[in-house]
Design goal:
mainly alpha, Farnesyl Diphosphate Synthase, two-stranded antiparallel ribbon, isoprene biosynthesis, prenyltransferase activity, Prenyl_diphosphate_synthase, metal-binding, Polyprenyl_synt_CS
């Protein structure tokens, strides 16, 4: 399998689905919907929806995974908009162009993020209304990942970490919740939409794959913040060190960070093998997360 081509094809499907399943930018209030679309359609790797597609493909069913992909990307994009705000990371660029609050206004960016978060759950409820148990499960997967004990909690610890004690335990907590939580949700949602969606053991293993892949993804991201340039990354680099953020390279050095990312990836791949099914896309995607350059 040509994983790069498969990723491009999947990303193109997600891009088309975003246009279908989100409010038109000319709908009233136009400025708000323009801000939402501006951030949603800014490109990016679409890793989370691709993981969802790969999981759904492992045990295919008749359910369309694309609305769930869009919901997941709406929620992820809301976190990026809010992360870039002056009260958080104060980032002027995102994916090589002005961040939402720089392109529009700070208040509008805040509301665009709020609207994307809300739309994510409305979309899941509406698109999967014909299979209520699936809809409830998808909403729960995403809500659990995005709440105070996971994604938002990880963000809080990350913010505190800028001024607090730098420990490996705190770093693991941040990575597990701020980053890995949404990758866990992506895989759980994808498998839930598949032919074995009611298999609790499978869903638990999916979350474990997401946890390992998410940790590896964040470590690689931290490494690239040190080693890559802004043009390649599409965002400012060396920002973590400047903000005194807790990262693996800062705590352990680059070599040990690379080793840790490889260990998490190997664990995720072993779990993919245990699941079976048509898992070539999923395994290839997990490997690609380790080998990425931006």
């Amino acid at each position: 399998m040509d994983i790069a081509e498969k990723m491009r094809e999947g990303a193109a499907r997600v891009e088309a689905a975003i246009l279908r399943w989100t409010p038109d930018e000319n709908a009233r209030p136009r400025e708000l919907h323009r801000a939402m679309r501006y951030s949603l359609c800014a490109g990016g790797k679409r890793i989370r929806p691709l993981l969802l597609l790969a999981a759904a493909e492992t045990f295919p069913s008749e359910l369309d995974p694309l609305p769930a992909c869009v919901a997941l990307e709406c929620l992820h994009t809301y976190t990026l908009i809010h992360d870039d705000l002056p009260c958080m990371d104060d980032a002027d660029t995102r994916r090589g162009r002005p961040s939402c609050h720089k392109k529009f206004r700070e208040d509008l960016a805040l509301l665009a993020g709020d609207a994307l978060l809300t739309h994510a759950f409305a979309l899941l409820a509406q698109a999967y209304a014909g299979t209520p148990a699936v809809a409830v499960g998808l909403v729960a997967d995403l809500a659990d990942a995005a709440g105070s004990r996971r994604l938002i909690g990880g963000q809080v610890e990350d913010t505190i970490g800028e001024a607090g004690e730098m420990t490996s335990e705190r770093l693991d907590y941040i990575h597990e919740n701020k980053t890995a939580a949404l990758l866990e949700a992506a895989l759980a949602m994808g498998f839930r939409l598949g032919a074995r969606g009611e298999d609790a053991a499978l869903l638990e293993k999916a979350r474990e794959i997401g946890s390992c892949a998410g940790r590896a993804f964040q470590i690689v991201d931290d490494i690239l913040d040190v080693t890559a340039d802004a043009a390649t990354m599409g965002k400012p680099v060396r920002a973590d060190a400047a903000a005194h953020k807790l990262t693996y390279p800062g705590l352990c050095g680059l070599e040990k960070s690379r080793e840790r990312a490889a260990e998490y990836t190997a664990r995720a791949l072993r779990l993919c093998g245990e699941i079976g099914g048509n898992g070539a896309f999923l395994s290839g995607l997990v490997r690609a997360l380790l080998e990425r350059k931006n």
